[in-house]
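Forgive a beginner's question, but would it be possible to get any protein sequence you like and the tokens describing how it folds?
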Amino acid sequence: MTSALTSFHLATLFIAATLFAAAAFCDVTTYRIPNSLNAALIALFPFYLFSAPVMPDWRQGFLVFAVVSCFGFAAFLAKAWGAGDVKLLAAASLWAGSEWIATLLLITALVGGIEALFALIALHRDLPPTIRLFRLFRAQIPYGLALATGGMSVLFFIAQPLLLSD
């Protein structure tokens, strides 16, 4: 029974990783993250909880989810983030909880910074640097890729004890 439950738990994490990858693909190709992917990530979370070998602190996960959702909503209202990015970050923070939220944010920021750097390089190289920087602030960058990378990294760290156990 324990091995079946562990297999179900790993399958749940794999499905979540697949949903993150699909969100990244959609954002890179269409600059949109479908609500269905974010909803599926949130709906999958209870299956993760109930199949975990050791029950995670789900209350902290919901608290982190609520705080990130509030900050994300404020960023959306300020037109700093897109709605899909806010929802994907909120869904990822639910999975990260208080234990992995710093890792999620750090990896997301690093990958997002690399994306911004590539966007800056891709801009017209013959323009003065100030105009390039101005265009970067107006450029659409598919930040779902960075968010999904952070989310998948968190899932890897969550699964690591099970993957390394005998």
In short: The longest helix spans residues 83-122. The two ends are 16 Å apart (CA to CA). DSSP finds six helices and no strands in the chain.
